[in-house]
């Protein structure tokens, strides 16, 4: 008599593995605080293009003059491509200005709403996840 274990366990394993990426995504309100707007200019130190969001790491000065390493969350790569972004839009070494909102619990993490590139173009960060519609700096 053959065991039913493989026939039963395989669908369960597939289901559990397919559900794992769903826990990685979040809403704006779950992670970011609309009462903590921020705007800064700094030098890009790292760019990460992956789903569900891109991340750009920027070294900037805070109001006291101390160096801060910000991790800026952008939109999903496919949304950014449709808005005109490419992987070359923001490169390591570029000086950019970012407006967005700080995370509730993770220090120096920002939901980037608008970005001013080295050539002066202002582009949106691609986040269409229900965050505040108002500008970060009224």
Using brief descriptors, characterize the structure shown.
globular; 18% helix; OB fold (Dihydrolipoamide Acetyltransferase, E2P); 138 residues; alpha+beta
CATH architecture: Beta Barrel
> Nearest-angstrom radius of gyration?
19 Å
One letter per element, helices H and strands E, the order comes to: HHEEEHEEE
> What's the CATH topology label?
OB fold (Dihydrolipoamide Acetyltransferase, E2P)
CATH class group? Mainly Beta
**Alpha-beta classification:** alpha+beta
Apparent shape: globular
- Average residue-wise pLDDT: 81
Biggest sheet details: 5 strands, mixed, barrel
Number of helical regions:
3
Q: How many extended strands?
A: 6
Measured by DSSP, the beta-strand proportion falls in 35-45%
The termini sit apart by: 72 Å
* Secondary structure: helix percent: 10-25%
Kindly report the spatial arrangement of strands forming the biggest sheet.
1-2-3-5-4
Q: Give the full name of the CATH homologous superfamily.
A: Nucleic acid-binding proteins
Q: Which parts are unreliable, with pLDDT below 50 for 5 consecutive residues or more?
A: 19-23
As for the number of domains, it is: 1
């Amino acid at each position: 008599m053959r065991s039913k274990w493989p026939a039963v366990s395989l669908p369960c394993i597939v289901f559990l593995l397919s559900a794992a990426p769903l826990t990685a995504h979040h809403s704006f309100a779950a992670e970011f605080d609309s009462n903590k707007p921020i705007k800064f200019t700094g030098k890009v130190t790292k760019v990460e293009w992956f789903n569900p969001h891109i991340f750009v790491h920027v070294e900037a000065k805070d109001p006291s003059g101390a160096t801060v390493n910000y991790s800026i969350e952008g939109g999903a790569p496919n949304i950014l491509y449709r808005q005109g972004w490419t992987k070359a839009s923001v490169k390591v070494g570029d000086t950019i200005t970012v407006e967005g909102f700080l995370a509730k619990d993770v220090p120096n993490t920002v939901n980037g709403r608008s970005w001013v590139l080295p050539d002066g173009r202002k582009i949106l960060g691609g986040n269409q996840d229900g965050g505040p519609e108002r500008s970060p700096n009224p």
